[in-house]
Specification:
Largest sheet: 8 strands, antiparallel
Radius of gyration: 25 Å
Number of strands: 25
Structural class: alpha+beta
Helix content: 10-25%
Strand order of the largest sheet: 6-2-3-4-17-16-15-10
Shape: elongated
Number of helices: 7
Strand content: 35-45%
Distance between the termini: 67 Å
């Protein structure tokens, strides 16, 4: 089998597919990508058994067939070839010879029959949504996903399907991010799925900030996202996501109204001296004023006073400053509202005029 292709043509799909291939794998075949040739189309497949990425591109080949190649080595070779380089691949036994100009590489292959395929999406529910709408949902929420939490259902992003609406919710138990967007969805009752962390991160890299539609299939155990030349499939986390509606506090009369950038800059400055482990910051509220204070084990202190619009009771409350900064960074509007109840209840942060996005941060004892 002989294949001819250009470096510029294969590099991007190769990078996309290789991104899901882990460097350290339990099985050697998982370090390889599957290359399938049929007619004048090449299909590249990479998987870690949780996420699968398939890219399609046009090539010239003298026969159909399939082989597996070491994903990282093949990618690194293509990356180091000059722009516009032409590549030829020839397969002989369990070796592949790659030639380009005066360069020549011989790579070992593994049998294509050993390459695993994710199960097909069973009884899929399908809908389409603009890529930028899905990308926005992910970007506004993914930072609140848990990392390696024993509550495995928190280690991902929950997508909820409602009639005419798609919601994304992420929480690590200390904070929560929620975003929603209109979508052409018709479901008899609301449905929830949890996409694992790696799947969310790969999907965020894959989709673009464009109006072009993306086709989504949701099955019993998988989600598949179809783009013109890319297919992305991820297993779903089997678990029940917490009732996020109970976590979101109602809008209260104790509300701080402030310029978002000013608040973000003040908290960033204050956080420089915060305890690296706990990141605690105390907020002291008084009429039209907020004072942010942090201490660290070296007995150092940072204090910042801000003029805000606030007419509630005088009280103090502690937060993880990183969680506040993450929420403020995700908000697009110039002004924000921070809704508070008391020192023992979580706060709700929203951009003014952005009712589709909500950020909740639990208080911490200082």
């Amino acid at each position: 089998m002989n294949i001819k292709l250009s470096r510029d043509h294969i590099l991007k799909p190769l990078q996309t597919v290789s991104s899901v291939v882990e460097r350290r794998q339990s099985s050697p075949i998982l370090s390889n990508l599957l290359m399938t040739l049929k007619g004048e189309q090449m299909t590249l497949t990479g998987t870690d058994l949780e996420v699968e990425m398939i890219a399609r591109l046009a090539v010239t080949a003298d026969e159909d067939g399939e082989i597996t190649l070491p994903a990282r080595k093949f990618l690194d070779i293509c990356k180091t070839l000059p722009d516009g380089a032409e590549i030829s691949l020839s397969v002989s036994g369990d070796k592949v010879t790659l030639k380009s100009g005066r360069s020549r590489f011989t790579l070992s292959t593994l049998p294509a029959t050993e390459f695993p395929n994710l199960e097909p999406v069973e009884e899929p529910f399908e809908f389409s949504i603009p890529q930028k709408s899905l990308k926005r949902l992910i970007e506004k929420t993914q930072f609140s996903m848990a990392q390696q939490d024993v509550r495995y259902y928190l280690n991902g992003l929950m997508l909820e399907l409602q009639d005419g609406l798609l919601l994304a919710v992420a929480t690590d138990g200390h904070r929560l991010a929620m975003s929603q967007t209109a979508a052409e969805i018709k479901v008899p009752e609301r449905r929830q799925i949890i996409v694992p962390r790696k799947g969310v991160q790969e999907l965020a890299r894959l989709i673009e900030d464009s109006d072009s539609p993306v086709r989504i299939q949701i099955g019993k155990n998988h989600i598949r996202v179809e783009l013109p030349d890319i297919s992305f499939t991820s297993k779903l986390i089997d678990g029940k996501f917490p009732d996020y509606q109970q976590v979101i506090p109602p809008s209260t009369e104790k509300v701080i109204a402030c310029d978002r950038a000013t608040l973000h800059q003040a908290f960033t400055r204050t956080s420089v001296l915060s305890n690296e482990k706990y990141r605690g910051m105390r907020l002291s509220l008084d009429t039209n004023m907020v004072k942010a204070t942090v201490h660290n084990p070296e007995q150092e202190e940072a204090e910042e006073e801000l003029e805000v619009n606030y007419n509630g009771d005088q009280f103090e409350i502690g937060f993880n400053v990183s969680y506040l900064l993450d929420a403020l960074s995700a908000i697009d509007s110039n002004d924000v509202h921070v809704y508070l109840t008391d020192a023992n209840h979580s706060c709700l942060i929203q951009g003014v005029g952005q009712d589709n996005d909500k950020y909740v941060v639990m208080p911490m004892r200082l």
